[in-house]
Amino acid sequence: MTATPTLAAKDGAAPAAVPGAYRTLTKAAFLASVRDRTTVFFTFAFPLVFLVVFGLLFRGQSVNGDLPYINYVAPGVLAWGVGNAALFGPAFALMHWRRDDILRLIWRTPTPLPTVLGSRLLVAIGVGLTQAVLFTAVALLPFFGLHLDGSWPLALPLLVFGVTAFLALGLVVGSLADTPEAVAAVANCVMVPMAFLSGAFYPADLLPGWIRTASWVLPLRYLDDGLTDVLAGRASLGSLAIDCGGLLAFTVVFGLIAARIFRWSNRT
After folding, report:
1. Nearest 5°: phi and psi at 192?
2. Secondary structure of residue 261 in the 3-state scheme
3. Beta-bridge mates of residue 62
4. DSSP readout, 17-44?
5. What is the b/e burial string over 166-205, where b = at least 16 CB atoms within 10 angstroms of the residue's CB?
6. What is the CA 211 to chain-centroid distance, rounded?
7. What CA–CA distance (Å, rounded) separates 125 from 216?
8. 3-class secondary structure, 68
9. Rounded CA gap, 82 and 155, in Å?
10. What pLDDT digit, counting tens, does each position of 64-109 carry?
11. Helix, strand, coil % (nearest 5) of the chain?
């Protein structure tokens, strides 16, 4: 009987080989993310489509006479776009690696699985930050009229925590689904309702009170809430810590679930 590999570190792994493997895997993950035109479109251009649609529908309007509508919608759509990309990429990769037995090959090499996942995280953070820069640059155009407060650098830790949380969720989806169609179905069933319930596509201040309360069990609410406060100049260190802490908690929960249901192959 063949022993089933576990997530534990492999005996005899060469520590000196890990940094080199990390660089190689990071480069490979980056090239894979930019070579596919469909992936590039849905990662960078698709969120801009929502920005244009909402910008046209609600141009010149404000919420409760306070901030312009765009200051609520832009952070929400950005949060959704970043979370969407961080979830889908790892989910599809993990599903393909397991289906094609690439994970078994990784298990037989000196490269530990955390190194492989770490390389994916680094690329996901880079993609998320690039998304944020591109999206914000477009939203700042006079047509959209986003007002960017001087506290915008506080968005950086939020984006890092947000990408990490949704990557962990992507590992859960990738561990459950065995086909590309299943990954897309599960991921969309998670992300689309979350976008509306978290206030990403509709200001949370205008949602019914019970939905606003219930939405705090969703990771996107913390990312959306934090980005909205930061870009509007309303963020404080206390509120930022709560949002980052919430995302960190989801990272731990999703990570534990992913580790529990992880499979090296569809045959095990």
Report:
1. -65, -55
2. helix
3. 68
4. HHHHHHHHHHHHHHHHHHH-HHHHIIII
5. bbbbbbbbbbbbeeeeebeebbeebbeebbbbbbbbbbbe
6. 22
7. 23
8. strand
9. 12
10. 556 677 877 888 899 999 999 999 988 988 888 888 888 888 777 7
11. 75, 0, 25
User: How confident is the model over 10-35, as pLDDT tens digits?
Assistant: 444 444 455 666 676 676 666 666 67
| Pick from 249, 247, 225: nearest CA to 236 | 225
Distances 169 to 86, 188, 252 between C-alpha atoms, Å: 9, 12, 10
Residues shown for the chain: 268
- For residues 200 and 75, give the distance between their C-alpha atoms in angstroms, rounded to a whole number: 7
DSSP of 77-141 = HHHHHHHHHHHHHHHHHHHHHHHTTHHHHHHTSSS-HHHHHHHHHHHHHHHHHHHHHHHHHHHTS
d(CA 7, CA 173): 18
Backbone phi, psi, residue 75, to 5° = -65, -35
What's the pTM value of the predicted model, to 2 decimals?
A: 0.85
Question: Collapsing DSSP states into helix, strand and coil, what is residue 177?
Answer: coil
Closest residue by Cα to residue 94 from 121, 57, 72, 130: 121
Q: How far apart are CA 137 and CA 100, in angstroms?
A: 40
CA distance to 5, 29, 116, 170, per residue, from 8 (Å): 8, 23, 14, 21
Give the model confidence (pLDDT) of 186-238 as tens digits.
999 999 999 988 888 877 777 788 888 888 999 999 999 999 888 877 778 88
2, 266 in Cβ contact below 8 A?
no
Residue 7 — very low, low, confident or very high, per pLDDT cuts 50/70/90?
very low
Distance CA 42, CA 26 (A): 21
Task: Report how far residue 4's alpha carbon sits from residue 19's, in angstroms, rounded to the nearest whole number.
Answer: 27
